[in-house]
Amino acid sequence: MRNIREFIALVKRLYKENDFPSDPLIRDPRALEGFTAELGVRAGQDFSPEDVAAELIRIRKDKKRTGGLPALGRSFHGPRWKSRSKTRN
Which of 27, 29, 34, 48 makes an SS bond possible with 82, Cβ 3.0 to 4.6 Å? Predict the structure, then answer.
């Protein structure tokens, strides 16, 4: 399994395409699982939702090396992907 940090550009592209802010994405298990599944398909790798959430936070905070997450604006329309599994409580 390759390191998720090898896919920073893809994570940012999917984040923009998903059009859903990082905090609600990380807090909503179904939205995070759907995002993680789409990332896995496009990267050809398996990632855990926890690793994806941690990477989103790292990218968001690390504006010097990664440029941060793309701006979505206030009228976001996501999440584009949601897991169909039942949410964890």
Answer: 34
Dihedral sign from CA coordinates of 28, 76, 60, 3: positive
- When pLDDT is averaged across residues 28-54 and rounded to a whole number, the result is 96
Token pair recorded at residue 19: 């059009």
Q: Is 4 exposed, middle or buried (0-12, 13-18, 19+ CB in 10 A)?
A: buried
Question: Is 9 strand, coil or helix?
Answer: helix
Q: Do residues 52 and 32 lie in contact, with contact meaning Cβ atoms separated by under 8 Å?
A: yes
CB 49 within 8 A of CB 33: yes
pLDDT in tens, 52-87: 999 999 998 887 776 788 888 677 777 877 887 655
The residue ranges of every structural domain in the chain are: 4-61
